[in-house]
From TrEMBL:
Name the record gives this protein: MmgE/PrpD family protein
Gene3D superfamilies: 2-methylcitrate dehydratase PrpD
Family: Belongs to the PrpD family.
Boundaries of every MmgE/PrpD C-terminal domain copy: 293-462
Membrane-spanning residues: none
Pfam family, one: MmgE_PrpD_C
Domain MmgE/PrpD N-terminal span(s) in chain numbering: 17-259
Species of the source: Variovorax humicola
């Protein structure tokens, strides 16, 4: 046999750097404000799941996962789903919790990466930490590692995944989850590189749902979370894996982006702010935005502009036309095909409809969960207004750094009213405060739990760094209010 004399492949700098960062991360070295914000982001995701619990899609997905072969296993081998009393095999619970946290499109977004990280990282960590009786501090450190690494990986593509038809939440979320789970399992740096290599073969998520409002997007976070769980577990067992998942010939960016989009990527963003010693000098977690609206983040600035115009006084009956200036990068998701976007037939189509977001804002001055009910987006007045909403690409937009929006309303008398939102509300430069996040959580959580129960959940999540066992949090969340509520954590559960 002829010896292989080819030169060894150079280490994948992104994979090795992120593995080193994840391995050496110490919760005590994370700035206090970053740790606190991470707990609020976790709280926000859980609140979104509880708001979703009463929705038809939540009930149907729960029924579907229980119909999977092997769903009836001993209680000792099961995990909890948020807001449900019936327990599931761990991987099925991870999938369902991903559906619940992301299903309303109300969860956080990393702006530059254009992806939802909490919902791809939290489900795997929550179930695994509870199953392994891990401490809240261990889960929190792994969660921070997952958010920090996933944000950097996605940022490299500069929003290119969307243009190629991939949902980065499902794709990049698999790598973020793999690193987070690997951290919770105590993998060393070499094994964390292997986990990323395995995740490369599991990452997926198609944007085809945008064309018909189907439900497959809701599967992506849980699928990514399970991919990460699989990848980290296989790496723990020494399964050989590619060592160049990002920079290799068939690595993430060469496989998921065409030549034009590959030319636009910046590999340096994959390790930005992480030193040679594995320590972070900047935290991407600060750039994760909490949503003020349960809609695709791409419509938020335009919705806020429309709401401002409404509050400033506007006779909707006398509107001749509405032009909305949006970033070119969001057109495929929320603007086209325009005729379909002007006539959403489901809540999910409404979530991705720029004409509806603007029309609702102009007409009602609000855009909340009630505006996603059929009676709201099917209202004849709002439909007539949607027909007058059109878009243009905004050359002045700073997307993807900001999700900008400008609404220009032309009245029948020829006058024009204009409102521009250069920085979308919730962005790091215009963030929702921790108090506002807590208020949003309580509004969402009390849609399913009694207020006292919601407050107990809030207290445990915000005290996660002192929680002795994640099982106490799972016992609060994996329950149905129609059944006796479990007792809140005692002081003995804290340390």
């Amino acid at each position: 046999m002829t010896a292989n004399t080819s030169a060894p492949t150079a280490p994948d700098r992104i994979a090795t750097t992120l593995a080193g960062f994840t391995h050496r991360l110490r919760l005590g070295e994370v700035p206090a404000e970053v740790s606190l914000r991470a707990r609020h982001l976790m709280l926000d995701a859980i609140g979104c799941a509880l708001a979703a619990r009463r929705e038809d899609f939540a009930v149907r997905f729960e029924k579907a996962v229980h119909a999977m072969p092997g769903a009836n296993v001993p209680a000792a081998c099961t995990a909890g789903a948020i807001g449900f009393a019936r327990r599931l095999p761990l991987r099925d619970a991870v999938l369902l919790n991903g559906v619940l946290t992301h299903g309303l499109d109300y969860d956080d977004t990393h702006m530059a990466g254009v992806l939802h990280l909490s919902v791809s990282v939290l489900p795997s960590l929550f179930s695994l930490a509870a199953a392994n009786d891990a401490s809240g501090a261990d889960m929190l450190a792994a969660y921070i590692a997952g958010l920090e690494t996933g944000a950097r990986i996605a940022s490299v593509a500069k929003s290119g995944f969307h243009g190629q038809g991939f949902h980065p939440t499902g794709v990049v979320g698999a790598f973020a989850s793999a690193l987070a789970v690997g951290r919770l399992l105590g993998l060393d740096a070499d094994a964390l590189v292997a986990a990323q290599g395995i995740a490369l073969s599991l990452a997926s998520g198609s944007l085809q749902f945008i064309e018909d409002g189907s439900w497959t997007k809701r599967i992506h976070p849980g699928s990514a979370a399970n991919a990460g769980l699989t990848a980290a577990t296989f790496a723990q067992q020494g399964i050989p894996a590619p060592d160049a998942p990002y920079e290799g010939r068939y690595g993430l960016f060469r496989s998921y982006l065409d030549a034009t989009r590959q030319a636009q990527i910046d590999m340096a963003l994959g390790t930005a702010g992480i030193g040679a010693d594995g320590r972070a000098s900047a935290w991407e977690l600060d750039n994760i935005a909490v949503k003020p609206f349960p809609m695709c983040h791409f419509v938020h600035a335009s919705a806020d502009a429309a709401i401002t115009l409404h509050r400033n006084g506007l006779d909707v009956a006398k509107i001749r036309s509405v032009e909305v200036a949006v970033p070119a990068g969001v057109v495929q998701s929320v603007c086209e095909p325009l005729a379909a976007k002007q006539r959403p037939t489901s809540d999910y189509e409404a979530k991705f409809s720029l004409p509806y977001a603007v029309a609702s804002g102009l007409l009602r001055g609000r855009l909340g969960l009630k505006e996603l009910e059929p009676a709201a987006f099917g209202d004849a007045t709002v439909r007539a207004l949607m027909e007058r909403v059109h878009y243009v690409e905004d050359p002045a937009s700073t997307f993807p750094r900001h999700y900008t929006g400008e609404v220009r309303v032309e009245m029948e008398d020829g006058s024009t009213k204009v409102q521009r939102e250069s920085v979308n509300r919730g962005h790091a430069e215009r963030p929702l405060t921790n108090d506002e996040v807590r208020e949003k959580f309580m509004d969402n959580a009390t849609l399913w739990f009694p207020r006292s129960h919601a407050e107990a959940v809030c207290e445990q999540v915000l005290s996660l760094d002192r929680l002795a066992s994640v099982r106490t949090l799972e016992s609060l969340l994996a329950t149905d209010p129609s059944m006796p509520a479990p007792a809140t954590a005692s002081a003995a559960a804290m340390h």
